[in-house]
Amino acid sequence: MSRYDATVEAYTPNGYYVSYDSWGNKEEVDPANIRPIQEGTVDALVEAERVAEATKQAIKRKIAQAASVDFQSRSLPAKLRIEPDDPEDVKVTKRKKIHAFKSKMRMEQLEVTQNKRQNAWQQFQTTKGKAKKIGFFSGRKRESIFKSPDDPQGKVGVTGSGKGLTEFQKREKHFHLKDGTIENDD
């Protein structure tokens, strides 16, 4: 029995008089064939597909956002600038801190560059890597080379063994038929 969404119009002695929501036609239906609409029940497969698609889109957005973030080079803080009137021990300390600051900036720059390359690769993998390749052998079923051959004379591991050579048709003279008579091309 098929299930169709309908609205009950009236109660009759034989059952219910219903109007089908999709088509609009009306019909009297047996009470055994009527069920209430189950609200809140969701097809698990449809829900899983919806969640998977939302997750996929979120990952794509995250990858695109990470790829678009560019490295902003920060300038040297004012407290690390070496002043001419600084004592020698303060200058040495500031030089060490400047060196550490520049190393940290260089590492951040390398990390941003590496993340961009990684995101570009991941984006490529999610779009291009999943495409099915169509080619000469794409529809052919792959068989193991160690499969037993069909012919009892064949050898295991030797592709095409036991089949023999291709038979060619013997070359003969070609005769053309013209008006029911044979015409010879010599």
Q: Please, could you describe this protein's structure?
A:
The chain has 186 residues and is of the alpha+beta class. Among the domains are: 1-39, no CATH class; 44-127. It contains two helices and five strands. It has helices at 44-68, 88-127; strands spanning 6-12, 15-20, 26-29, 175-178, 181-184. The protein has a three-stranded antiparallel sheet, with no helix packed on it. Strand 2 (15-20) and strand 3 form a beta hairpin. The longest helix is centred in the middle third of the chain and has 40 residues, at 88-127.
Concise overview:
It is found in: Nucleus. The chain has 186 residues and is α+β, with helices and mostly antiparallel strands. It has helices at 44-68, 88-127, and strands at 6-12, 15-20, 26-29, 175-178, 181-184.
